[in-house]
């Protein structure tokens, strides 16, 4: 019997907001139906920027704004799909999502991008991938982002 190894990880340095958004686009293109892409990191690390790229790649055409105050934004895509942008910053966990029907939609193939996913261990354990973002100083003295990408599925 073989024991699975640790989840595959990779690290990328992101020099600006455009690079952060492009990483989100690449991950969004790869997300299978029913997948959750989790984002973690401190305030200002680029979670919403990365989410914007992923949501665009998933077919969201309207303006993408942070759901911090609402907690949840539900988008319909051109191909009749559903994509959620969720922010758990103001939540202790994600249990309130299930009353909103998110779990049923995920079971039916919707996708979700969740900022502050580390606030709910159960949701993080179900994630297709998690991106941990950090603000770092680059070699040229500029500020950039380090993205640690861990695939779960």
TrEMBL record:
GO cellular component: cytoplasm
Recorded superkingdom: Bacteria
Chief place of localization: cytoplasm
UniProt keyword terms in alphabetical order: ATP-binding, Cytoplasm, Magnesium, Metal-binding, Nucleotide-binding, tRNA processing
Family annotation (InterPro entries): P-loop_NTPase, T6A_TsaE
Subcellular location: Cytoplasm
Keyword Nucleotide-binding attached: yes
Pfam families linked to this entry: TsaE (PF02367)
GO molecular function term, any single one: ATP binding
Stored Gene3D superfamilies: P-loop containing nucleotide triphosphate hydrolases
Gene Ontology process terms (BP): tRNA threonylcarbamoyladenosine modification
Known role: Required for the formation of a threonylcarbamoyl group on adenosine at position 37 (t(6)A37) in tRNAs that read codons beginning with adenine. Is involved in the transfer of the threonylcarbamoyl moiety of threonylcarbamoyl-AMP (TC-AMP) to the N6 group of A37, together with TsaD and TsaB. TsaE seems to play an indirect role in the t(6)A biosynthesis pathway, possibly in regulating the core enzymatic function of TsaD.
Family: Belongs to the TsaE family.
Protein name per Swiss-Prot or TrEMBL: tRNA threonylcarbamoyladenosine biosynthesis protein TsaE
Organism name: Acidimicrobium ferrooxidans (strain DSM 10331 / JCM 15462 / NBRC 103882 / ICP)
Organism placement in taxonomy: Bacteria, Bacillati, Actinomycetota, Acidimicrobiia, Acidimicrobiales
